[in-house]
Design brief:
The structure is a homotetramer. Helix content of chain A is 52%, strand content 11%. Chain A is α+β, with helices and mostly antiparallel strands. Chain A has a domain at 3-185: Hypothetical protein af1432. In chain A, strands 3-4-7-8 form a four-stranded mixed beta sheet. In chain A, strands 5-9-6 form a three-stranded antiparallel beta sheet. In chain A, helix 10 crosses helix 12. The longest helix of chain A has 22 residues, at 237-258. Chains in contact: A-B, A-C, A-D, B-C, B-D, C-D. Chain A binds chain B through residues 14-18, 20, 34-36, 39-40, 42-43, 51, 54-56, 58-60, 62-63, 66, 182-186, 265, 268, 285, 287-290, 292-293, 296, 311, 314-317, and chain B through 14-18, 20, 34-36, 39-40, 42-43, 51, 54-56, 58-60, 62-63, 66, 182-186, 265, 268, 285, 287-290, 292-293, 296, 311, 314-317. Chains A, B, C, D: InterPro entries: dGTPase-like, HD/PDEase_dom, HD_assoc_2, HD_domain. Chains A, B, C, D: Residues 61-177 form the HD domain. Chains A, B, C, D: This is HD domain-containing protein.
């Protein structure tokens, strides 16, 4: 019997607070979990800076990755008819589900913005480069690492497999909504996973999954959960304030390095990133704790901006914010900038515009070449109808990008004298004027 | 109005997955939460190595500390009659509840074993030393830091306050049982907190809290939860295997340092600990991420033992174990030790006996000078009866220390050739013989 | 101290699966719960025939009434500032919340359709007629029964009180959505009650309650829950099939009585309803078990239609259904009717069109004289904005009445030969033709 | 393919608040659920008078029976190896699980005490007598009804099947503990069903089920839940007060009948019970609503005792109680009895001693011929150990029958003048004296 068909003598389980149990029966899944690259995900938080707002959300990507695997396993082994996929397709999908987030680094969003890395590319590299994960996958055949990688980069010929893991109704989203809701303690993210799993079917055109009409309301509920989690949790302005600090810390450190600044401790682990010349091993050596170590020692750097930003991040002295309307607030921004410069507070680090935007559900746009595949309902008469044509609720959020822009700045500088009183007064007046518009 | 009486203009809340909301109305509580020493608790995991077994349990002591505060707040502001305590006693208790774990360092258990630190002493130092926390407390009067400290070190004259935070039925335990159950996903730790809070009363003798008779079954259930969490989670042999690795890593690093070994990167943050000469600032500078940083770079140290142990910890290649009976397994241990030495595997690091023990409930022993105060029931006729005299279930677990001893060793060395085949065979035979006894 | 201010020496609680505990501190509430009219609500199911579809939903109006009371109590005693209402207004609201459903009879919907009773009128009669409830209320003063009644019939001068109990965001809906979700086991009905209670405020114009802007998403979620519960549970076509049976049973029995039919057992308890001449005592003597008793014995009546319908109801042999479009299916209906008549199956009882319709959220329509008050958001700048102007989701369901019409008939008659084969064949063809349209 | 092997084309599910979904795939199960005898269980409450104390507990035996079926289905189809049972054994067990409570009548406990019926005998009669259930079962072969009956009456040759449905760790108890906890809202009854199902194994001696050692704590928790539910819910003295009223109502009605009393309405449905000469059809015609109908009209009977007791039951004017110690309170009882007789309050109906007793866990007693089979643990070394020898907690409750006796009487008669003042005073003194003993 080949390695890909090898079952463990007795199934293993992981106790999981979201799914109850995560079941592992295939030897290769067990072996992949044991690799150092997968274990590294224990040291990468799922939600970056969200725990600064929702203190319960301290869970890791390890946690989430097991959950995505479990959902795909339930779909393949319980929901779908046994002959939906070949055994090879099945195990390929399970591996892809488990490994889809492998390339994430610490605080991905801010990190990638500053260092121009791409976690999706690194996922591909880890699957096919010189890693323990690849060694395990290779036991399944020379092409198997590439097969798994092709599901994740969406080029696998069976698009139903691809869309189980990445689409508008995929195991990834289903797990993170439920998991992030559980750990934050907000109730909005909950939806009826059991019901969705029951009404999911492979699309007859081999191009994704569809939903039986009877499950429409469960999917509406799932999309509402998604919408609410984005509005309430993922885009929470306080978490974004932490994100802005992170971004500016990394930005400052990189600028200092490029300007020849001498760090009191040589930041070996981040140097390759400053130089934007990174090997796979250097990338894998990085995790949340490495960055947190540097933030911790940088609190004592002689560069005032770097040390202040790091101290803010570690002690949660966050930046404050006001709503910012790009089309009309340019003057306001320029006036603020002038005042900050006058007070010798560098606006590049202390007056930051942050955008967040989300498309809760992408409608089908006939003729459009891009965009995500819509969710299809299988009607009782056998026809497929796009979800938003049946659901006014989904229609109401469909196709509309929701954007929120905020301007972040240190209110404490205004209050504690770091900005001289007369300038502070002008700033306060300016903000007040804007707010009562 | 004095600072200690100062209310916030509008109450603040933290969304908490265990208690729903944590309510903050007192200015001093808000200010204490904002201190760098309290924020540091975000970087100290509540359950150390438990997440190696229960992957969901990645929560921090920050998380738990807010929970303990919330339980005490509910007892003082909702359960107890308003005149039970003076306003000063009330705010003292709230501060003590919030700050009781302030002195915890990373992976306290193993850390303290190797470096002879004491988190309780550090809690006292943080409250009364040169810290932001003390600055905030001082706004409440010169004696206020000492007053809060006295609740935590149990010398406060009002022993009811003391026992709300530290006793066999205290807010600390109530929170951690519920919280650890929530994050691990095990159901055993759940009990009816709401009911217990309803039946709790200050003891008429001013020496703790008592329970109305009608709440006896709720307290039985709480003690069962505690018993089960210890058996199922806290003493789980796999988590203890992670703990053993930690202990041996720190042990090895300290020994190397004392032997004059030169580390490839100067471990500045841990040097004071190697020398057992630690300032408060040095202690506070340490957190989980600092240790994890060193473990990460020590994976590449030239010392094989240190690098292997660190790699094991980070990639979860844990030690295996067998039951060990101290009174009768001495011979077995010596034979194992001989074989390990013969294979040049240092038994000081690779053949480790680990004890765990717990006393689920300490009965009242007349005449005994030590021991914890028992839980008293307030009977309908006004008498106080010790819980175990009324409950056969509690009697069954009361006063009995439950000890579990295991011998840990690297089974993979036996399997992968690190230990030569002939010695490995002898070891296997020895273990097998012991197990079928 | 007056009766209306009288507190119970020690508060009482009811264990409630939805709210945890229902707290009773006021003597009058305790006394009202003990009246025979309130206890009667234990014998009236909250959801009539829903348990034929969702077997878990067997809870009573007693259950729900306590829940509505508890929500109002939390709003008045915890959420709102103490001076929002006078003590008299407070106790009036609590009584009204508890008693608002007092006039419901068994299976209200079908019952009222046939016998032209009105449960709201009976609620008023019970409050002000010769009942135990009125006796209790009178202890609060001669006008107090009328005061409580005026909250329920919406004429009380303080419209905020009125709208706590009856509006688009009232304690009644909040409780039944959560409760019905709990008992059916569907997750759709859950929303974050705790959050809504935190952001609720009395309207500055004294005309209802408003929501702080920060709570908008919680209210969106509540309206979605409402929408989903209507779609998934309350309008479930199988429950409605039970409802149709009930309606037709009562209809048939009444017709038989009016035609002088002699029942084998004199249906004393329902005679006044057949005659549509009902005293308050006769109304109060009726409950689910009385009707069920008659259905049970009517199974053996010699009238074939009555006995068949009752047997169907008790053994859950429900009618089947097809979608029915009033504007275009008239012909279809007439053809079906012709065939049923030919088969001697009375279409008045066996071919039934049933409408259900709901308005998930009623928008503000300027100039409109009717309609429900919209939900207002209190914006950060102090303005009030109607909810749907801020929420695209709410806008999508607002103002649109959702109607579902079905035609019910006994498919088993077609299958088991009760309808002759050749006619049955025609009926099947007719239905098939309609479905594939 | 035989009827017993017939699967439904598409599986059906019932939404269940306790198990999420109840899955039905076998045609015979679907057909059995549709029988009138099984549907009758919708009209029999699971917990009789418990909802007088815990208002949420209004669920029916229909509800519970589906739950027991679902647990057995999960054990047979998921937990156990496929070859554990033959297909015939499997379907026999599923039918038995579904039907095990079929013979329950309304308020079984009180009913059987007065009329000497036995619900277990009636279950057997329904399975093998002239019923729809038997008709369905007969499609599985002439012997099939008897086969199913033999599982329920414990004579089936495969004792493992028998013990799945009736033993100290059976699906019946597992469901009712979880279900009753859910509906009452008490948290005590919860335990980790998923875990127990995972560690359950057929006993190697073919005589029941055993538990893998690793599941010991889950079973401890289950037994604690059972213990707590009995102490807190099932034996709650207020529910028992309702039970006493029921018993005395039926007792009084029967005595009146036997004494030739003429009821204002002929109680046709209960006459056979008064005469203790009951056909199966008469038994099946009875349900909660029939009895409630009679209680309702008996409120107006001229017999004062019957009308008072019925009114008490329907309006929840319950009897009060004091603890009663059979061995020492005989004198107290006689004095009370004397005073009641003097006041012309018939002690046969108004001064009632009620016993409740439970054996939380029956230990193995070597040599004992009776008693329930103990729960066996499968140790890692393959041995079977009786649970209480491994668990001190179980040992503490094992083998000990817990009895609680109370004396019930109408305190309101003492307070409202129905008992003359001077006698009332003596009664109060007597009770007070007893209580302060």
């Amino acid at each position: 019997m080949s390695y890909l068909e090898q079952k463990m003598p007795e199934g293993k389980v992981f106790k999981d607070p979201v799914h109850g149990l995560v079941h592992v029966g295939d030897q290769i899944i067990w072996d992949l979990i044991a690799t150092s690259e997968f274990q590294r995900l224990r040291r990468i938080r799922q939600l970056g800076t969200t725990s600064l707002t929702f203190h319960g959300a301290e869970h890791s990507r390890f946690n989430h990755s097991l959950g995505v695997y479990e959902i795909v396993r339930e779909i393949l082994d319980i929901t779908f008819a046994e002959d939906t996929f070949t055994p090879l397709e099945r195990i390929t999908a399970l591996c892809a589900a488990l490994l889809h987030d492998l390339g994430h680094g610490p605080f991905s969003h801010a990190f990638e913005k500053v260092f121009h890395t791409d976690h999706e590319e690194f996922t591909q590299s880890i699957l096919t480069g010189n890693t323990e994960v690849r060694s395990v996958l290779l036991r399944g055949g020379r092409e198997f690492p590439f097969l798994v990688a092709s599901v994740i980069n969406k080029t696998h010929p069976n698009q139903t497999l691809v869309k189980l893991i990445s689409s508008q109704l995929d195991a990834d989203r289903m797990d993170y909504l439920l998991r992030d809701a559980y750990y934050t303690g907000v109730s909005y993210g909950k939806f009826d996973l059991e019901r969705i799993l029951r009404v999911l079917r492979p699309s007859p055109d081999g191009n994704g999954v569809i939903i039986k009409e009877s499950g429409m309301h469960a999917v509406e509920d799932y999309l509402m959960s998604r919408y609410q989690m984005y509005q309430q949790v993922y885009f929470h302005p306080v978490s974004r304030s932490g994100e802005v600090l992170l971004w500016k810390i990394l930005d400052r450190a990189k600028s200092l390095y490029q300007a020849g600044y001498e760090f009191s401790v040589n930041p070996s682990q981040v140097l390759p990133f400053f130089e934007e010349d990174i090997t796979l091993d250097e990338y894998l050596a990085l995790d949340d704790s490495i960055l947190m170590f540097y933030f911790s020692i940088w609190q004592n750097e002689k560069d005032k901006i770097l040390s202040d930003l790091c101290n803010r991040f570690l002690t949660r002295r966050l930046l404050s914010y006001v709503d910012y309307e790009p089309s009309s607030d340019q003057d306001f921004y320029n006036q603020m900038k002038g005042l900050f410069e006058k007070a010798e507070v560098d606006p590049a680090y202390y007056l930051v515009i942050d955008y967040s935007s989300d498309l809760p559900y992408d409608l089908y746009k006939p003729g459009a070449s891009t965009g995500k595949s819509p969710i299809q309902l299988l009607m009782r008469n056998g026809e497929l109808h796009e979800l938003s044509t049946e659901s006014p609720i989904v229609e109401s959020i469909g196709g509309k990008i929701r954007t929120d822009v905020k301007l972040y700045f240190p209110l404490d500088f205004i209050e504690n004298g770091r900005i001289p009183a007369e300038i502070a007064k002008e700033i306060v007046t300016l903000i007040h004027k804007k707010e009562v518009q």
